Structure formats: C-alpha cells, structure tokens
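Subject: sequence -> structure tokens, single chain

Hey, anyone have a minute? Need the predicted structure for the following. Not urgent.
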Amino acid sequence: MLEGELDKEAVEKQKAIDNLEHDLRAAMTKHHVTDLHLATDVLHAVMIRMALASTKTNQRAAQQLGIGKTTLYRKMDEYGISARPKD
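Reply:
Had a minute. Here:
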C-alpha cells in the first residue's frame, strides 16, 4: 500500500470511530446508561450479534471477535443470545 492510501485509510478509520462514539453517546444518554459494566455488556452483546449475523459459523464469529469459541458460547449464554440470528 502506498503512503497516501495508508493516510486515507487512517482518516476513514478515525471518521468511523468518531461516528460510532457519537452514536454510542447518544444511545447511552437516551437510555440513561451510566454504569461502565452495563455499557460494556451492552457493547459485547451487540458485537456478538453482529458477528453472528455476518458469519456462517460460530467459529468464524469467534475469530472475527478475537475470542475463542468457548468464550463466545459463554458470553452468548451470559447475554441471553440463544441462537444464531435468522436471515
């Protein structure tokens, strides 16, 4: 990759992060989420659902999230995510 492409990619990543931060702040304010543990649990559950929806297997979902499959199953149970979302 050329230096200009790396700079463009870094700018795009930062824009995505800024947008996500804005959206998260708005949602947390709307729902009065002030507890760090609750906010973390909500974020984990959302990311797990997204990974399950965007992959074909639980193993790939776990890989996408950077966790082991056993950890994925434990977190699915913890957050009440019982099955892969239907398309």
